[in-house]
Amino acid sequence: SISAFIFDLDGVIVDTAKYHYLAWRKLANELGFEFTKEQNELFKGVSRKRCLEILLDIGGITATQEQFDKWMIEKNEDYLEYIEKMDESEILPDVPKVLNFLKERNIPIALGSASKNARPILEKVHLLSYFDAIVDGNDVTKAKPDPEVFLIAARKLKTAPEKCLVFEDAVAGIQAANNAKMLSIGIGHPDILSEAKYNFKDFSEMSIEFLSDLISE
Ligand code: G16
Ligand code: MG
């Protein structure tokens, strides 16, 4: 049975992917090329550094180390301007319902995110207090699909990986959960997240019975 839960942040708890997209698009436009929503799919769950490498590839741009560092900072500053304006209204459907269900049963909850901005975002939407452990882009050396982020989370929750469940919206994230030998649940399009053990469009599609069965099995 499952005894601990790990949540990805972007695309699972809040829809910050749209802000990442706007900030990357602004940079691309400044550098003289387009960046589409479809291309943004590749950026989900991927580190900021890796995103910039892919973006420059798309634009056919070779950067000096100095330029690269400058553009990383620029993108993040733009992104932070969007984050600054966030509030509870940006929490994705039924996330509080699931968090409350777990809290009421004293089930440990962790965040497993690639983002270095995870804490301020959770603070903004007033969900920080639900999490017993936070593992984010500041704690990992290997990006998803490497299982590192989720394995650290399991260790912090003092739970064996096999007893952990992961909610993820990114292909690389589902692969990371599977690589960690955890139960993977895809939140988003089942076609994109076909490697997940279970799939839901969002939390409003997932019943509380489904969760209690996993816990008590
Ligand atoms: C998120 C996003 C990625 C983003 C990454 C790093 O991962 O899905 O698009 O590039 O974090 O974010 P930051 O620039 O804030 O450090 P996750 O794992 O929360 O979905
Ligand atoms: Mg995500």
Distinctive features:
single chain; about 220 residues; alpha/beta; 6-stranded parallel β-sheet; 9 helices; 6 strands; binds 1,6-di-O-phosphono-alpha-D-glucopyranose; binds magnesium ion
Fold topology:
Elements: E1 4-7, H1 17-30, H2 37-40, H3 48-59, H4 65-84, H5 95-104, E2 109-112, H6 118-124, E3 133-135, H7 148-156, E4 164-168, H8 171-179, E5 183-187, E6 198-200, H9 208-216
Helix pairs in contact: 1-4
The structure holds 1,6-di-O-phosphono-alpha-D-glucopyranose and magnesium ion (MG).
Question: What's a concise summary of this model?
Answer:
The protein has 217 residues and is α/β, with parallel strands linked by helices. It has helices at residues 17-30, 37-40, 48-59, 65-84, 95-104, 118-124, 148-156, 171-179, 208-216, and strands at residues 4-7, 109-112, 133-135, 164-168, 183-187, 198-200. The chain contains nine helices and six strands, in the order E-H-H-H-H-H-E-H-E-H-E-H-E-E-H.
